[in-house]
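Consider today's protein:

***
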Amino acid sequence: MTALTARVTAALERSVLPSVIARGGAVRVASAEAGLATLEVTGSPGAVFPLASRIEAVIRAAVPEITGVRLITPGAAPLLSSPGAGDNLARAAQQVLDTGINPAIAAHHGHVTVTGAAEGWVQIRFEGGCQGCSLAEVTLRQGIEPLLREHLPGMTGLIDLTDHEAGTEPYFSPEKR
């Protein structure tokens, strides 16, 4: 195990690994090199994907040399990959967001951007007043996800990659909740 891999592993063990295990999943660091940490996900996918943005934020904060995180399953292609994978799905998802969601949340100084798509998983990031908003999860699960599923039958799931803790002006701050 390289020193960089050990540091990424230590960051996971200190913070998010207990949450993943409690939800029925497991994550191990497969590699950490050239600024990219590759994490192997086993168990329940629902244990890891809702925490994807938190996992990335924890690793990037603890190990500044890491600028990206990729999740994989054993023997499969990456589930989270760089933007460009799944271009058609990503473009279609952004179009749905631009017409059906972004005009509504613009009143809250918010915006949602598709950052990529792979294996049917659409990756999004909340911006502006939505980043750190205490109601972002409600918007995601009750607004964005059903709308995307209605218009994109090829979509497997939705992953929020937003670092909500870094939000500087959330529309509804956690204290308002």
In short: The radius of gyration is 16 Å.
